[in-house]
Structure formats: structure tokens, C-alpha cells
Design goal:
The chain is mainly β and 119 residues long. It has one helix and five strands; from the N terminus they run αβββββ. The chain has a five-stranded antiparallel β-sheet with strand order 4-3-2-1-5, with no helix packed on it.
Length: 119
């Protein structure tokens, strides 16, 4: 038999420690497929706003926008956006900074993904 130690994880957890951890694949609550190749407006943490055509995304909500334009903020009031824009072209937006993604052609109602059905 194997000697058992009090500090080893195998002694505490037995055979469970030898099995690799099986990570469940998370299902995304966002359906950005319907927005591909369509104009979107993206708001970021810190207040910046950009609009462009959504060309791609991943499960971390990193976005690829083409023909992107950034809205310029008012120099006197940084929370106020002006009608001025500057062209920034093709950009990759980091998902951790994305606060909101909205289609430019209007909104659409979706089912609440967090609502628990009564069983």
C-alpha cells in the first residue's frame, strides 16, 4: 500500500484529486450573432462611446468594429458628448471595458436570461 501523508491532497480527497477538473462550458447570455455586419454603438467604462460595424466578437465580449468613430466629449463637461466624431477605423475593443452594446437601428426585446421558471 501507499504511504499516506497528512498534508497531501490525495490523502484528503482520495481518487477525486487524481481526476482532472471538468470545466462546464458556459453558455453566453448575449446573442451578438444577430448584430454581425450591422452598425452598433458601444459604451465603455470611463465614458467613451464608439460606433461602427460589428465584424466579430468572442466569449469574453472582445469586439472587432470596422469603420469605427469615437464620439468627442465636451472639454468643459467630460460627461457630456458632443455631436463631433473622429474616425478611428478598424478597432479591437477589450471586452472587460465594454459596458453596453446597442444596435444603431433600434432595440429589440429579449427574454430575461436570469428569470427562473417555477418548477
Amino acid at each position: 500500500t501507499e504511504p499516506r501523508t497528512s498534508c497531501g491532497s490525495h490523502a484528503i480527497m482520495g481518487d477525486a484529486a487524481k481526476k482532472p477538473y471538468e470545466k462546464k462550458k458556459k453558455e453566453s447570455i448575449l446573442d451578438l450573432d444577430s448584430l454581425l455586419d450591422k452598425p452598433v454603438r458601444v459604451k465603455f467604462a470611463g465614458g467613451r462611446e464608439v460606433e461602427g460595424v460589428l465584424k466579430g466578437f468572442d466569449q469574453l465580449v472582445n469586439l472587432v468594429l470596422d469603420g469605427a468613430q469615437e464620439y468627442i466629449r465636451d472639454p468643459d463637461d467630460p460627461f457630456l458628448l458632443t455631436d463631433e466624431k473622429r474616425d478611428i477605423g478598424l478597432v479591437v475593443c477589450r471586452g472587460t471595458q465594454v459596458v453596453l452594446i446597442a444596435p444603431m437601428d433600434g432595440m429589440q426585446a429579449i427574454a430575461n436570461p436570469f428569470l427562473q421558471e417555477d418548477q
